[in-house]
């Protein structure tokens, strides 16, 4: 489903799995080229050591590359299934304050996905997300692998 950046931001802010973990979409960039996310430290997501629960950090990184690709490719006329195929997280430092990260896609990455979809019907690639605290210190890195499968194209072809 195609939606505006603003509509999706608000929908994801109140999506229960994100809301109750205090994962807050700050903004989607124009044309879904990126997203800025905050993980607010809260009584609802603290672990035994009073830092942000690792599962919350992992959950925060889960959907965003898939969402970005899905919106961008739909606007380009592709009918696709997109999901996170796998992810690996490395916890570097406890999240004792709110955490922040951004996910971005540039023209080359989008072109690479489109070329692969046109030639092979699928696209698989890993992207790194760096999650930092208020002071800008690295707390976790997530290697997120996105899988995109072309269902069919609704683009009009010129002859």
UniProtKB/TrEMBL annotation:
InterPro entries: DUF4442, HotDog_dom_sf. Pfam families: DUF4442. This is DUF4442 domain-containing protein. It comes from Arcticibacter tournemirensis.
